[in-house]
Amino acid sequence: EINSTVQVTTHQVRLDSDNAIQLLGNSDVVIDASDNFLSRHCISAASKQLGIPHIWAAVLGYEAQMTVFYSGHGPVYEDLYPFPPKNQQSCVDAGVLGPVVAMAAAMMATETIKLLTGLGNPLIGTVAVYDFISGCWEYLPLEPSLSCTSKVCGD
User: Fold this and answer.
1) What is the pLDDT of residue 5?
2) Rounded CA gap, 32 and 43, in Å?
3) What is the C-alpha end-to-end distance of the chain, expressed in Å?
4) Are the beta carbons of 13 and 39 closer than 8 angstroms?
5) How many CB atoms lie within 10 A of CB 105?
6) Domains delineated in the chain
7) Considering only CA atoms, which of 59, 55, 58 is closest in space to residue 76?
8) From CA 1, how far away is CA 18, in angstroms rounded?
9) Cα separation of 67 and 112, whole Å?
10) pTM
11) Which tens digit of pLDDT belongs to each residue from 97-146?
12) Residue of 53, 35, 39, 57 whose CA lies nearest to 103
């Protein structure tokens, strides 16, 4: 049974390295739908320091990627993207298809429920990639990296 007294807290401020710990400190899980490397890095560093799961998804064009990062239990964001991507397309340039965004959001909600209720196995150590054109999901293994430096990971 899902807890009907769950509280969702939103903050109408720009997340950065100065306020991430304060903003995320009372959270049981972080759901990250941010659209840039700096925000994702701040969320990852704070989640790691706080010891809470970081559910991440990204969409571009006809593709969605989604996983659960959880320091101490599996990989973190920097294991997937240790450095800012070069020449990264933006959603403004490439566009996004609404149903792909909805698919990513549904997956994030499902992973949140799994983490908070203990149902099933969360996608820790697996990146789910959805291709709208083929209609297929691909599941890619992701291991914690020994090269994830303390500077990158925010230790």
Assistant:
1) 83
2) 8
3) 37
4) no
5) 16
6) 20-153 (3.40.50.720)
7) 55
8) 37
9) 11
10) 0.86
11) 789 999 999 999 999 999 999 999 999 999 999 999 999 999 999 999 87
12) 57
